[in-house]
Write a structure and sequence with these properties.
- Helices cover about 25% and strands about 20% of the residues.
- It has nine helices and 15 strands.
- The chain has helices at about 105-115, 130, 160-175, 175-185, 215-225, 250-260, 275-280, 290-295, 310-325, and strands spanning about 60-65, 70-75, 90-95, 100-105, 120, 145, 150-155, 155-160, 195-200, 205-210, 230-235, 240-245, 265, 280-285, 300-305.
- α1 (about 105-115) packs parallel to α9.
Length: about 325
């Protein structure tokens, strides 16, 4: 990002664009509606206590979504080749004593080298607890972004000033989470809703039976939420409601400011990643996911043909090549 530019199991999400209409958990992802371009949300207030570096070479910042971008559940691997030709896999996440997420061994090697060449910032919709289950190869990231931008972790610890600034902005611009939860409780049916969940007291989601989900309910909820500053999306078996100002791009801009980054690279697969990709200097998306399903693009975006875990490997290859220029 040039300095003039401007959120159990796995949590990934999608969102509607403010300029169009839309309807990394695992499995097939379906957007309710689509968009071709999303605006870059305004940056959240910047805590004044963190100085901007003034000496030394400007680093390259690599901000990447995790689920179905760099890491993959067994259901999302998309191993279309004969078994004997499948790549060796490295497990990078265990949940309830069971392996959950993987990357290829070659991708692990690429990431390990990348962490020594650039400022690598995992950028995820996962909660902090869910993120901390992941054991990525390479040096531990100095910065990580969780809860779709609601938390910036610095050496694994939440930046309290940043989080407070986000909470303040949501209170000013959106209906409260309690109002959204009340709507969900009043309008959903236990015959098709398995779980109600809240992530970091910032956004809400449902785990649903997809085949029983009433399509007209999703449309009504999306319209109701949009009038209150929230977005609604369907991804896999989850329906997400996320405040519009809660964005990955705002948090990445703040990390870029703190590190003095001269170039920002980004990758992601879902509509919640669209603002992140737009805010980067160069960006990539895999051949699967919501963005692929909606044929979403941008002038500085490279669309990859690879799908599944092979796409994660190719994204890391592209990151390293671009960071070396």
């Amino acid at each position: 990002m040039s300095t003039t530019s401007g959120t159990s199991g796995t949590n990934t999400a999608s969102t509607t664009s403010a300029t169009g209409s839309t309807t990394e958990t695992t499995g097939t992802t379906t957007s309710v509606t689509t968009t071709t371009k999303a605006p870059i949300p305004a940056q959240a207030p910047i805590p004044a206590t963190i100085p901007v570096p003034t000496t030394g070479p400007a680093p390259v910042l690599v901000a990447s979504d995790l689920d179905r971008t760099l890491i993959y559940s067994s259901a999302a691997l998309a191993l279309g080749m004969p078994d004997a030709q499948a790549p060796r896999l490295l497990c990078v996440e265990v949940h309830e004593s069971k392996p959950l997420s993987y990357m290829t061994e070659h991708a692990a090697g690429l990431l390990e080298r990348l962490t020594g060449e650039a400022v690598f910032v995992p950028t995820t919709t996962r909660t902090r607890k869910q993120y901390q289950r992941i054991q990525l190869p390479g040096s531990a990231p100095k910065y990580a972004i969780c809860a779709n931008g609601g938390h910036i972790l610095v050496d694994g610890v939440t930046d309290a000033d940043w989080h407070a600034s986000v909470v303040s902005r949501l209170a000013e611009e959106c209906a409260p989470l309690s109002e959204v939860r009340a709507y969900l409780t009043a309008t959903t049916d236990l015959s098709w809703v398995r779980k109600h969940r809240v992530a970091e007291d910032l956004f809400a989601y449902l785990v649903v039976e997809r085949e029983r989900l009433p399509e007209d309910w999703l449309e009504r909820f999306g319209a109701w939420a949009g009038e209150r500053g929230w977005t609604v999306s369907l991804q896999g078996r989850k329906v997400y409601a996320v405040p519009k100002p809660l964005t990955k791009s705002a948090a990445v801009r703040e990390v870029a400011r703190r590190t003095g980054a001269s170039l920002t690279l980004a990758a992601g697969d879902s509509l919640l990643d669209a603002d992140l990709l737009l805010a980067a200097d160069r960006a990539w998306r895999p051949g699967h996911g919501e963005l692929a399903d909606s044929d979403w693009t941008a002038p500085h975006l490279d669309v990859l043909a690879e799908r599944g875990v092979a796409a994660g490997e190719e994204i890391l290859r592209r990151f390293r090549a671009a960071a070396a220029v």
